[in-house]
From TrEMBL, chains A, B:
GO terms for biological process: catechol-containing compound metabolic process. The keyword Iron applies. The lineage of its organism: Eukaryota, Fungi, Dikarya, Ascomycota, Pezizomycotina. It comes from Oidiodendron maius (strain Zn). Residues 34-107 form the Catechol dioxygenase N-terminal domain. Its cofactor is Fe(3+). Residues 114-295 form the Intradiol ring-cleavage dioxygenases domain. It holds the Pfam family Dioxygenase_C. This is Intradiol ring-cleavage dioxygenases domain-containing protein.
């Protein structure tokens, strides 16, 4: 098409100011042929502009924000994700997980992914050690099952696991790290069971030598997370579960810097008796964590998500329809 | 203080979900001793969470956003500021300028700074050439004055100027660039006058080989800006004016990708007659741009900003007081 033909279809963008900029950005963005991303961008521009209006944001403050986000992006690499950390510490990650992965009663709750998940994972078999480079770590035997909401075991579930060593560091945070350690994936057996030998996780501060650390300091907030083990459980047909187990009684149990702790994910450390020690080939008295994960079917999750979305948005006064499980405006 | 003493003052963060996460993030952030940044963070978290709620943002969409912002930060360097470009293309930059630099009638309007402003500028004297490495550029004589709202000339104003060459590139975009070109600063003379020789600017696409370019493509938007010259005028006692002059009749006059064009900033290209040619040492027929800038005093700008802020926020239902010219909640 000729430029003049294309331009004729655009709104006339001239003399924009605080009173008319928002509607004009909406207008020029409304040519987006994808209804979902059009809706997302409309809401993004709305809230971004309302934020500037509510605060009467100054040019200096705007520039400080630009620089903060730029630094947050620049400090990211293959093994550090500061933008996720920012989302975590502002409560956005927990909110999105809660919206996108609603859990019916009786199923295992999800929580924040955190910035230390990686895709380079060794496969381990049941009973394997997952931590090698941590001589001071207190050994722990972790014994789990995976079931559906009808208490039927699910075999063939891929379980990703990652945890800190006894100093509170993930492998990717250690300068001496070359191969993945304290992380792996396993597959649940025909009884839906999986078990491994790790170390007792400890509470640790999230990385606070970067922009997010500066922000927490400004907010007079501490950077600590209570001790936990991360899990992702996935199998086609089931809603992918991103979760973690937290050690009950941790100093930071009710002040997690990233808002992840849930009562149903708090676990006690027990000790292996003779029978357990024999069965899992560990010493009597070894620390033990037991947990039974319950997955929701993809279909049930999709329906619950769509139902929640429609109800929540109608409460907010938005008339929506659900396409591919996600809401878009319902325009007559 | 003992950790237990510090922690006792915190809200109990446990079992957070879509219904209660926002108030708890507000609570933990409310220990910030600085009232202004506390207010900004409260509004930021509010709108960030409302955005996720309005859209029922999915984990995949959240991750796409995280990656987009990460890439936007990572592509930035000393000479490319993609985060500013993002703000510009979403209309935020224009909005913030409009809020923070209100212009009373009769004064020159501001507009977007854009991502190509640099701090490394040669000083030029009146009549100097500011563009050297552009043999194909059409020469233009730019003759300006700076006055206050009472039409009194202002001497000693620092004027920063930057423009594209005839290919639509700023110096920092050229691979062969080593020293600043097409940019400088000058000081207005005792008559408030300044003049220089540049090239006629041309319309150009903003950098669209990065994340912002992808976003514009998704939005079916073109990346073009109409031809313009950038100016920053500053002198203690006056509100710093970030502005630009746009060539009237440009193809993109009413569809600027960053929403910057204002009728009062549109200028005609004229031609030097014999008298002008003689006075400014250019050939007869040389293209000429004339403009008279009008600056507002810092005091007047501050008062207008405070008045606008109070009115706008009361209209939004926020009870505020103004501290250092910026609003914070007025809590009895």
């Amino acid at each position: 098409m000729e430029p003049s033909v294309v331009l004729a279809k655009l709104p006339k963008l001239l003399d924009l100011n605080a009173d008319n900029i928002t509607e004009n950005v909406h207008l020029i963005n409304s040519k987006n042929p994808d209804v979902r991303s059009k809706y997302i961008m409309e809401r993004l521009v709305h809230h971004l502009h309302e934020f500037a209006r509510d605060t009467r944001l100054s040019t200096d403050e705007w520039m400080a924000g630009i620089q903060f986000l730029t630094e947050t992006g620049k400090i990211c690499d293959d093994e550090r994700q500061e933008m996720v950390l920012l989302s975590d510490t502002l409560g956005l990650s927990l909110l999105v997980d809660s919206i996108d992965h609603p859990k019916p009663d009786g199923s295992t709750e999800g929580t924040v992914l955190g910035p230390f998940h990686t895709h380079n994972l060794p496969e381990k078999a049941n009973g394997d050690k997952i931590m090698h480079n941590d001589p001071d770590g207190t050994p722990v035997l972790v014994v789990c099952t995976v079931k559906d909401v009808n208490e039927q075991p699910i075999k063939g579930v891929r379980i990703e696991i990652w945890e800190t060593d006894s100093t509170g560091s993930y492998d990717v945070q250690r300068t001496d790290h070359s191969v993945p350690d304290g992380r792996c994936f396993m597959i649940s057996d025909h009884n839906g069971a999986f078990w491994f030998k790790g170390v007792v996780p400890v509470s640790y501060p999230i990385p606070h030598d970067g922009p997010v650390g500066k922000m927490l300091k400004m907010l007079s907030r501490h950077p600590w997370r209570p001790a936990h083990l991360h899990f992702i459980l996935s199998r086609p047909g089931y809603d992918r579960l991103i979760t973690a187990l937290y050690l009950k009684g941790d100093t930071y149990e009710t002040s997690d810097a990233v808002f992840g702790v849930k009562s149903s994910l708090l676990i006690d450390l027990s000790q292996a008796d003779e029978s357990l020690a024999k069965k899992y080939d560990v010493k009597v008295g070894t620390k033990v964590i037991k947990y039974d994960f319950v997955l929701v079917s993809e279909q049930e999750s999709l329906e619950l998500r769509a139902k929640n979305s429609k109800e929540a948005l109608e409460l907010l006064g938005h008339k929506v329809k659900i396409i591919n499980g996600l809401p878009v405006p319902d325009i007559d």
